[in-house]
Amino acid sequence: xxxxxxxxxxxxxxxxxxxxxxxxxxxxxxxxxxxxxxxxxxxxxxxxxxxxxxxxxxxxxxxxxxxxxxxxxxxxxxxxxxxxxxxxxxxxxxxxxxxxxxxxxxxxxxxxxxxxxxxxxxxxxxxxxxxxxxxxxxxxxxxxxxxxxxxxxxxxxxxxxxxxxxxxxxxxxxxxxxxxxxxxxxxxxxxxxxxxxxxxxxxxxxxxxxxxxxxxxxxxxxxxxxxxxxxxxxxxxxxxxxxxxxxxxxxxxxxxxxxxxxxxxxxxxxxxxxxxxxxxxxxxxxxxxxxxxxxxxxxxxxxxxxxxxxxxxxxxxxxxxxxxxxxxxxxxxxxxxxxxxxxxxxxxxxxxxxxxxxxxxxxxxxxxxxxxxxxxxxxxxxxxxxxxxxxxxxxxxxxxxxxxxxxxxxxxxxxxxxxxxxxxxxxxxxxxxxxxxxxxxxxxxxxxxxxxxxxxxxxxxxxxxxxxxxxxxxxxxxxxxxxxxxxxxxxxxxxxxxxxxxxxxxxxxxxxxxxxxxxxxxxxxxxxxxxx
Amino acid sequence: xxxxxxxxxxxxxxxxxxxxxxxxxxxxxxxxxxxxxxxxxxxxxxxxxxxxxxxxxxxxxxxxxxxxxxxxxxxxxxxxxxxxxxxxxxxxxxxxxxxxxxxxxxxxxxxxxxxxxxxxxxxxxxxxxxxxxxxxxxxxxxxxxxxxxxxxxxxxxxxxxxxxxxxxxxxxxxxxxxxxxxxxxxxxxxxxxxxxxxxxxxxxxxxxxxxxxxxxxxxxxxxxxxxxxxxxxxxxxxxxxxxxxxxxxxxxxxxxxxxxxxxxxxxxxxxxxxxxxxxxxxxxxxxxxxxxxxxxxx
Lengths: 532, 298
Fold this sequence. Notes:
The complex is a heterodimer. Chain A is an alpha+beta fold. Chain A has a domain at 279-498: Dipeptide-binding Protein, Domain 3 (Dipeptide-binding Protein, domain 3, Roll), CATH 3.10.105.10. Chain A is built from 16 helices and 23 strands. In chain A, strand 17 (374-380), helix 12 and strand 18 form a beta-alpha-beta unit. Chain A starts with a helix and ends with a strand. Chain B has twelve helices and no strands. Chain B has helices at residues 3-9, 26-32, 34-51, 53-56, 89-124, 126-140, 144-155, 159-186, 189-196, 201-237, 249-256, 265-292. The longest helix of chain B is centred in the C-terminal third of the chain and has 37 residues, at 201-237. The relative contact order of chain B is 0.15. Mean pLDDT of chain B is 85; it is low at 1-8. Classes of the chains: A alpha+beta, B mainly alpha. The interface between A and B is medium-sized, with 37 and 26 residues.
């Protein structure tokens, strides 16, 4: 019965009139990619949104690229590279024959300019730290770049796969100034900037001479004439469009888990999955706030939340629970630390709270020294957070912790998350390795954002520094492993869900495979063909 | 509403040779119409169940069971099924109605009182009339949804924004109705008489004008109540109103709309509740207008 209902509803949805812009089938030789959100700009070092990454990987290239396994570094604009003995000097040997979208040849000077612009304090890049402690980046000749660091940085190549380090054309940056990535762009990517109407659509056209795609693709050149990145905020409208052939790609966060079961039954849609994907949802505690500062509260919260039930009910089983801080497939994951994060056990949670002196009050909420166990939680308003935080709220209530939830629209939410008003917050984030994840959130220098926990621990800073400057992978793994154990013990987070990378494509799309670096489904958008 | 007030407004028969039959009261006249009687009874049921929600609800407000998420209506122990969080829909519906009605009462009361004050002032102080009513016209030209969006941006989403937005949208409507009714009353001789006794303006409005406009106010309030519920639910549906886990009918419909394909009851049940409440209040308003209209009196 339930099945027929679903099928009938899907049929109805498919015939439902959607927005005017979508009223016709997707045009020929044009791939229509539907997204939920737009970015405020598309300037590599200044745009950290996943939505920005989706376009930037198409518009520009990085020195090195990432394999499907999210661990192996492959050539990009650099065909090979040498690392000095002391780990402080990287020499990149660039490919020949690479040109920008305007036809100008790309040289080592452009690489040096782009990296220096990224690390220049005047650029005010929020992700500058990802470039490492740079001494200088210079062009030795037209095809050799020397990347000198003040101290070794074991994470450098991983960070150079990300779009922040993308190579852009100096002349265009200087011509457009503040409006670079708003009014125009000039990169060496497989697709070129044609137009952008914010919060509506971005049109990209094929870069005709492009044949330097990463080796993970079979065909290094783009095969589709145009890509339209269209913003459709309403999930059901996106789903109707992909089923009726009015769009070609819906992926990642734009493809809600509740739709997967239905889409599997629709013959006009192909569903793809990337199993190696690091984009997690966690709940963090402000460790310097009255209630959240109590380790017993944090431990009890970790014990009280039934993540498996949340994964099943809110994420329809498509995104598994996150029992550990870091995805076990990620580099430098520490299995010992993984075991230390408490598993679901509400009785144990009550015992922990009893032992710490939190006594249930008349309304069931615990009290200690006149302080009620009340936490104020902030997060961004979306379907997943809404369901997840309400479920967590009910779980915490059962052990006597009162969590009030306030979810904010993204337009004001980021500002609210930068305040000191809340005790608990939820966030989702992409990472390439355990160190990448921890170095983003836990350094004391990153307070108050992105270290919204206000975690201020010299030992954490020391271990991060040790891991970063390690030239021996074993030393690095040991430092990052120790840090994971330390954070698991302190229960600074409740790791919640590992989101999944699913991608739905229309019938005419061939050769599409979701990648997932920085949460981006199409990555370079190569190997994709349209049959109609 | 006293009978004397009604009598004053009603045309007095020229020559009453025999004592007229005792006129039925407003309430009796209301209950004579079957539709009106049903609407009245349903209104009472809705109000009572909303007020008594904490005692009537089968489960605790916060109780959820994720294993029961989206259970269909008729599942054992869940006559209306469960929502996406595995919460009993009966509980959610009762608390949702409570919140929706509270929101509507607050909005109509706030907007109604402000609007009535403006209306009386415009009718009483003729010099201020044009200015006041042009301000009301300006307010009328703002769609309430737009106003709600603006308020939500300022205060953050929540019931406060919804109440303020719907109240503000009510002010000009109420002001116009009251002004119209009050102008009619102001032309009566007894107002002139009251003036000549040296009564203060406020006292004249309070003692003589307002009571005679009550029937218009009453009817409008009832009709507006339904509209405000609809408007508030629309704002909540857009995510500007009640925040989770607060149950509010519009927000519940919004939460359920993504699951329309496989668990339609989550969105349909609160939507039906909104429909029923608005319909009942509109019917009651209509019937009340008929019952209070002296011209329709038999």
